[in-house]
Structures are given as structure tokens and as C-alpha cells.
Amino acid sequence: MIVLKFGGTSVRDGEWINKALEITKNQLQKEPVLIASAMGKTTDKLQELAHYAENGKIKEAENIIQTLKDSHFAVASGFLSGNNLSTCLSEQELLFKKIKSIAKGLSLLRECSPRSNDTILSFGELFSTIIITHRAREIGIHTTFADSREFIKTDDQFTKAQLLEDLTNKLIQEKIKPEKGKLTVAQGFIASTVDGVTTTLGRGGSDYSASIIGAALHADEIQVWTDVNGIMSTDPGIIPKAATVPVISYKEAAELAYFGARVIHPSTIQPAISLGIPVLVKNTGNPGAEGTHIISTPESPSIPADTPKAIAFKKGITVINITSYRMFLAYGFLRMIFEIFEKYKTSVDIISTSEVSVSMTIDNTTHLNSIEEQLKNIGNVHIKDNMSIICLVGQGLWKNSIIISKVFKNLGSIPVRMISLGASDTNLSFVVPNEQAENTVKILHKTFFE
Ligand code: ASP
């Protein structure tokens, strides 16, 4: 069986729901389960509505409910007819009545606990999947609607609930029966406690839902349908020639996520990857494009080791350098430094050390002044802001000195600091001045990808 997950942009209106269902219809023989997000920006709107209700602004909350109702009804009426249309509208009507009375209650009490917040947000995925189910039936697909809250079970940490894995796997296997030629539609993002109270898996949690369901049913593949062609070799805003990376390992994708590759958050696909289930990222608007396969092991023949897969960068980094001659042959020095960062909850990204100095990069400078003051008790502190981290991602890069020599030979006179290679066996990172970041990426892209 396969799981197809369609994000909010992929089901933003009737036209896109049709595209999503066309893609699904072509794969009915693979026993598909379709997981959908809320349509477009619905979850943001619901969050706004919860804030209004909490502040007693019932008129504003009701306006949002009306806008959401109008847009969802318009989509349904645009492509449904007869029984499908009337059932869809009456099922939605019921939900809109419910959300209206919840909003009224919250605005009277002027509270919106995390628990109530989850209930409000859960409506987005319910609205979208009801419409998708009826549209699928309208175009002749035999479709079963499933409520994810009946099988995805969590603890009660509302807004970021933690999965109860064993129970969830058992229930999914009991309740979802994929079949050739038939479709099951269920919601991403939403779940419930053992007692049946609605929870959510955290914003953007639909990928996680797809991965949980795919893992429980031992899917052959999980397809994440989004609005880009997959993971790119670098930011196309800087390098128009950037190309889609056809195959990438899970570890490599995880490195890219730190640099803001928004396509997929690796932790959300971990349940599938840990079972060796491949995840394919594809573009709903361009289904013919190859997309990116994320796979668990880089050793597979389809993914050449020792070659860079992508170049990522992060601007606006601050480098902190501490030099202390007392450090020579001393121990406990790094601990003293890191205790200061821990105290100010500031994470350090790259570090490089010599016997008498330590360089570190941070991107959150909220507590920089206090950190600097305290570091001065340890040694001489030198801070340089407006720097960028450049990161060449590719598992096993360190095994091939020719690649490393190409990087530095081609960078010529660009000043490079803090080279870090092989710490994770997945990247080569270094720091350059902000104004050299784009140029550095251009040179590296030309060297390895053009
Ligand atoms: N609809 C939810 C959100 O916008 C979950 C998701 O789309 O993944 O965060």
C-alpha cells in the first residue's frame, strides 16, 4: 500500500483538490490512503478565531467562522452534485454549528486552554477531508472516510501531543484496510487521547500523521505532495540553475532542515524512515517532475556516496572567539564555556578548537551581551557578527580529499573561517563574511552541479 499526503497548498481550492485526486486516481491499484491537511490557510484562520474567542470578541470570531463556511461551501458546490453535494453540505453544516457553539462558550468564559485550542484547530482537517471524500466519490472512486482521532492516539500534551505508538499501530492496523482500486481518506495533524479528547501533533504535523500511518501499515512508499519540485541543490532564488536532488539520504535531509529547507521536517518522517520506507517528495502542481526520494541508507546503489547533494547556507551568524592561555593543558575549560551558553539557552552550531582558543557560531543573539560578559571571566573574547555558514551536504564527503581540495581551491581569495568536516560525516561547513555568502554558493554550485 502507499500513503499520499497532500499539504494545505495542495488542497487550497477545488482546482487543486482535483489535481490531488487525479494523482491519487492514477495509483488506485497501489491501495492508497490519502492524508490531507486543512485547505490553504484554514488552520491560521482557526487560530485567529481561537484568539478572538479567548478575548471575548465573539463578533470577530463569528466573522471568521462565516468566511470559512462560505469558502468551504463554495468549493463543495463548485464540483459536487446530487447526493454528494447535499451530504457534504449537511456534514459540514453540523461541524460549523459545533464550532460556533464552542466559540461562543470560549468567548463567554474568555479562555482558550491548549485543550480547547486543539479542538478548534482540528476542524480544518475535518472540513477538507469531508470535501475530498465526496469529490472522490463524485469522480467515481470508491472512497472510505476515516477519522484519524479513532486510531492516532496521544498523551494529553495538547498542541504538541506525543504519540502512543503501540496503541496507535494496533488501532491503525485494525481500522484501516487498504484495498486495490479503493481509497481511504483521513486527516493529518489531528489525533486524540485514550479517552477520546481531541489533540494535535503540532503545527505542520500532517507529514508526521502520514509517516505514522505508513509505518503502521508497512507502506511501500510515502508520497508527500507539496508545491515545490522536491529538495533543491540550493536556493533557486540565488542560483536559478538549481536543480531537484533526485535521491537524498535521511541524514542529509536532516542537515538541510537546519538551514531552513522547508520542504519536509526530518523528524516528522522518522517513523517511516526507521522502517526503511522511502519517502517521495513531489509537486502537486507539476506531477510529471521527478521529485526527491528520501531514503534511509546512503549505501543504496541509487545514491552515490562521496558526492555533494546540496549546498545550504545561513546568513546573519555571529562568531564568538575565546582565547585563554590558562587553557593550555587544562581540563574543564569547554565545560565552563558551555555552561554559560546553557544558562542563556543559546545553542551553538559550529565549533572549532585549538589548544588555546575556541570559536563558536550562534544565530540567536538575544543574550549575547550577558554571554560576552561572562565569557570574559574565562579569556579574551572577540565577537564578529554578519557572518554566514556555508554547508556542503553529502554523506561521506570526508572520504574524498579531491572534493575537499576542489572546494578550497575554487574559493580563491574568499576568507574562510571555522572549517568543520566530518563531525557528522554528512557535511562540510565553514564560515565566510555575509557579503561573500552568495558568491561562495555560486562558486560551489558551479563546481559541483553545473
Ligand atoms: N493544518 C496544520 C497546519 O497548518 C497541519 C499541517 O498542515 O501539516 O499546521
Features:
single chain; 450 residues; alpha/beta; Carbamate kinase; VC0802-like; 2 domains; 8-stranded mixed β-sheet; 6-stranded antiparallel β-sheet; 13 helices; 16 strands; 21% strand; binds aspartic acid
What does this entry look like structurally?
The protein is α/β, with parallel strands linked by helices and 450 residues long. The protein has 13 helices and 16 strands. Helix 2 runs antiparallel to helix 5 and helix 4 runs antiparallel to helix 5. It is globular, with a radius of gyration of 25 Å. The model has no long low-confidence stretch (mean pLDDT 93). The structure holds aspartic acid. The site of aspartic acid has 12 residues, from loops. Aspartic acid binds next to loops.
Ligands (ions, cofactors included) = aspartic acid
Strand order of the largest sheet: 3-4-2-1-7-9-10-8
Largest sheet: 8 strands, mixed
At the fold tier of CATH, the topology name of the largest domain is: Carbamate kinase
DSSP helix count?
A: 13
Strand content: 15-25%
**How far is the N terminus from the C terminus?**
37 Å
CATH hierarchy, class of the largest domain: Alpha Beta
Write the layout of secondary structure elements.
Elements: E1 2-6, H1 14-25, E2 32-36, H2 42-54, H3 58-79, H4 82-109, H5 114-138, E3 142-145, H6 165-175, E4 182-187, E5 190-192, E6 198-200, H7 206-216, E7 221-226, E8 247-249, H8 250-258, H9 266-273, E9 279-283, E10 292-295, E11 310-323, H10 333-343, E12 348-353, E13 357-362, H11 368-375, E14 380-393, H12 401-411, E15 417-421, E16 427-433, H13 437-449
Parallel strand pairs: 1-2, 1-7, 2-4, 3-4, 7-9, 8-10
Antiparallel strand pairs: 5-6, 9-10, 11-13, 11-14, 12-13, 14-16, 15-16
Bound molecules: aspartic acid.
